[in-house]
Fold this protein.
Amino acid sequence: MSLGRKKDKTVAATAGRRRKRREGFILFAMAFPLIALSFAFTYLPLHGWIYAFYDFRPGFTLAQSEFVGFHWFTVLFDNPIRVQQILQVLRNTFAMSGLAIAFSWFPVAFALLLSEIRSTGMKKGIQVLTTLPHYISWVLVFAMAFAMLSTDGMVNNLLMSLGLIDTPIQFLRASGPRVWGIMTAWGVWKSFGFGAIIYLAAISGLDQELFEAARVDGAGRFRLIWHISIPGILPTYMVLLLLAIANFLNNGFEQFFLFENAFNVRHIEVLDLYVYNLSFRGRSFSLATAISMMRSVISVIMLFSINWLSKLLRGGESII
Amino acid sequence: MDNKGIKHPMTVGNAVFNIFNYTFLIILTLLCIYPFYYVFINSISANELSARGDIIFVPRQVHITNYLQVIRLPGLPRAAFISVSRTVLGTAFSVLACGFLGYLFTKPMWGRKFWYRLLVASMYVNAGLIPYFITLFRMGFMNSFWVYVIPLIVQPFCVLLVKTYVESTPISLQESAEMDGAGPLRIFFYIILPLSKPILATVAILVAVGQWNAFMDTLLFVTNQSLWTMQFILQQYLNDAHRLAQQILAMDGQIDFALIQRMQAQTPMSVRMTVTMIVTFPILLVYPFFQRYFTKGIMIGAVKG
């Protein structure tokens, strides 16, 4: 009798498990088309890395192309002209990423100052208006830069009428290392308001009693910021900083593509733009693929090592 | 939560700090919005004045002829149609796809953890320009409208947002629906969709802004001018505004209100500014809504992102 009941139970359990399994497969079948769609545009293109090992020219098939092994990788280190180009591109990439990281405290400072404002309406207004540049495209940023900074634009007119300058400044035709600064400034202009949102949220999430207690103990405004607000948002900042470091080689493309011209090309060509120019202006598909490939591998390695480092430092917390 | 912050005593030091703080923040805010304002007032002021750079704070001799004329530029209505189509279709598909996938990832799916990890990892995978280009080329996306929509339907970050949100909603509704024999599809449409409105709104605006702003896909995959987007045509205009101004002048040659014409004649600058404003308006309309939902969304994303 008791044996029979036990058997019934196991039968029921197996049936339940089988039903669960079936359900799991049905759910997977529903998700599969969407997962496949996503992977078709992220993982599937990875097979294209094979072009880095051929002398591939647009208009031919891979079968018609010659297999050249690591030729394109060694060219980057052997051919003096290529070496010079690559060094220039890397210098620009490092300069732009380095400057962006050097100014990454700006949204933090902005959030701290904004959280010192007591008028809610004012706070909201400033917050909404400063995020506006984040939502427009680089094409629009360039259009506005064009309207305001061209030789007959508003900034030059203003400076000339104030007698500060005699001849218009060629902002958009700047050359030399100044280009790095100008590009960083546009980047900060576009992103600081949006970047501050997460810090503002972090600050308003801090325990109010901490502030009250410190106030009672006689702490002033700056001490509250220094001892409570800043330590409170530091973890968030560190995570974003580490991600920015992991993304050191990915500055993006559009900004530099749009602002690029004959005057600044030597200082604006970052990796993404270089790969584009190699491919679609120089028709060197294989070399461009080899560079992309190395970049991706280095980026992933950096991401993992930084993640590992942060786990080590922050007691097991992962950033990705 | 609306945090009022600490009330500080009215000492001289605090007053000075407040003055500097307000001044600094207001200057920053003006720096952010002035370019928009500048382009706008110049697009509605007398073109002669704006070409000279005379319009700085107040519009003068306001007129809307620029807008009426620029809309007649060859290619612009078509580009507007393409941009609106890709934004509407892309957003609708993305919200449904990311919503459904995000929901399925909360269910006991076969290999759920593995697929989810793979999806999140794909955010960090970048095959590179040429491999991506060749893959899409082979798939037949060259000069196809669908290159604007299909590659962007499933966005891992949006899936992550929806998944995290659905996990935070009470499960009892889903369970009771399951008792009544509702399948995953029915539960998704009748329970999850209405329940997840805030996060779906975030996803919708995130995708819509991305779609409207997209530029590179046209640059890479489209040579056919009838598929150009507003962003792309604006970039063309920036390089080519002089010729376009001439074109508009030629179109209006027959009007004999000489003075008005001179005042409102298109200059390269007026064409650029007017088109810039037309491309900006939709963003201006939409983005404050995003702000409301996003703070919530980014916090959810930050936990797991």
Notes: The mean pLDDT of chain A is 88. Strands of chain A lie at 54-55, 66-67.
